[in-house]
């Protein structure tokens, strides 16, 4: 999406948008960072080793991503970009629903009497 939005931008347009340093190092390639410019790191991935705790962490991550996509949709009037963002937003919703179903399966299994 970033490439699509910047592929026809001139160097002066990229500089005016504050993307000059990124262009100088990476052309139009992506560099994964948050909105404050902090680079992505694997430290963002949370895992406890407990299936329920990990699934709840996954659900929270999907909901945060869904909210971010919605904010981005609200920030643009480009219909094609909105369509792409809506697809990504809906994917996050489906992921969260599947994780919630997995939580229920684990809870049901824990509550089931085991006879060996």
TrEMBL record:
<comment type="similarity">
    <text>Belongs to the manganese catalase family.</text>
</comment>
<dbReference type="Pfam" id="PF05067">
    <property type="entry name" value="Mn_catalase"/>
</dbReference>
<feature type="binding site">
    <location>
        <position position="62"/>
    </location>
    <ligand>
        <name>Mn(2+)</name>
    </ligand>
</feature>
<dbReference type="InterPro" id="IPR012347">
    <property type="entry name" value="Ferritin-like"/>
</dbReference>
<dbReference type="GO" id="GO:0046872">
    <property type="term" value="F:metal ion binding"/>
</dbReference>
<dbReference type="InterPro" id="IPR007760">
    <property type="entry name" value="Mn_catalase"/>
</dbReference>
<keyword id="KW-0464">Manganese</keyword>
<dbReference type="InterPro" id="IPR009078">
    <property type="entry name" value="Ferritin-like_SF"/>
</dbReference>
<protein>
    <recommendedName>
        <fullName>Catalase</fullName>
    </recommendedName>
</protein>
<feature type="binding site">
    <location>
        <position position="95"/>
    </location>
    <ligand>
        <name>Mn(2+)</name>
    </ligand>
</feature>
<keyword id="KW-0479">Metal-binding</keyword>
